[in-house]
Automatic annotation (TrEMBL):
GO terms for biological process: isoprenoid metabolic process. InterPro entries: Isoprenoid_synthase_dom_sf, Terpene_synthase-like, Terpene_synthase_metal-bd. This is Terpene synthase metal-binding domain-containing protein. Keywords: Lyase, Magnesium, Metal-binding. Pfam families: Terpene_synth_C. GO terms for molecular function: carbon-oxygen lyase activity, acting on phosphates; metal ion binding. The keyword Magnesium applies. Residues 2-79 form the Terpene synthase metal-binding domain.
Length: 83
């Protein structure tokens, strides 16, 4: 996730309009692929990479340790977007 966060941070600081960033934040809060449909094209790749990476980590932890960490991953991603 650490490689995706700087890209998303730049998107918030430099590239995104207020409306686009609100849409991205809403998509992160929903955490589903359908939310990606409402995003501008340039945000879709970032969202998909973040979504897939977070779900992959959560899946690995669930298989290896029997713990569902996806809610914690989603919470951390949301916290990083707001700061």
């Amino acid at each position: 996730m650490s490689c995706i966060v700087p890209t998303i941070d730049d998107m918030y600081d430099v590239y995104g309009s207020l409306d686009e960033l609100q849409c991205f934040t809403d998509a992160v809060d929903r955490w589903d692929l359908e939310a990606m449909e409402d995003l501008p094209e340039y945000m879709k790749l970032c969202y998909l990479a973040m979504f897939n990476f977070g779900n992959e980590i959560a899946s690995d932890v669930l298989k290896d340790h029997g713990l569902d960490v996806l809610p914690y991953i989603k919470k951390e991603v949301s916290k990083r977007l707001i700061r």
